[in-house]
Design goal:
The chain has about 90 residues and is mainly β. The protein has no helices and ten strands. The strands form two sheets. A seven-stranded mixed sheet has the order 1-2-6-7-8-9-10, with no helix packed on it. It has a three-stranded antiparallel sheet with strand order 3-4-5, with no helix packed on it.
Length: about 90
């Protein structure tokens, strides 16, 4: 399994969003990074104890960061930033 800073990195489809309002993997609350790949973008999301927690980032295929928002206990927290496709 791939890790980042000692935390597991998994494809988002491996997680399930359950009735308790948290993301689960193998029946347990997930802590780590979830990755989603779309034709025009790649997303990464930090999770802690099943909640979105920490940064969520969106990159275009060139690797340029175009959006970033931070979460704490599944709620937006702090700044939300967006850039154009050329990174400005």
């Amino acid at each position: 399994m791939t890790t980042r800073n000692g935390l597991p990195v998994v494809p988002r489809p491996e997680l399930s969003y359950e009735r308790d309002g948290r993301y689960h993997r193998d029946g347990k609350w997930f802590t780590g990074w979830a990755l989603s790949t779309h034709p025009k973008a790649k997303e990464e999301q930090g999770l802690r104890s099943g909640f979105r927690w920490g940064p969520a980032r969106v990159y275009i295929p060139s690797g340029t960061l175009i959006a970033e928002v931070h979460f704490r206990m599944d709620l937006k927290y702090g700044r939300e930033r967006e850039w154009s496709d050329d990174g400005r």
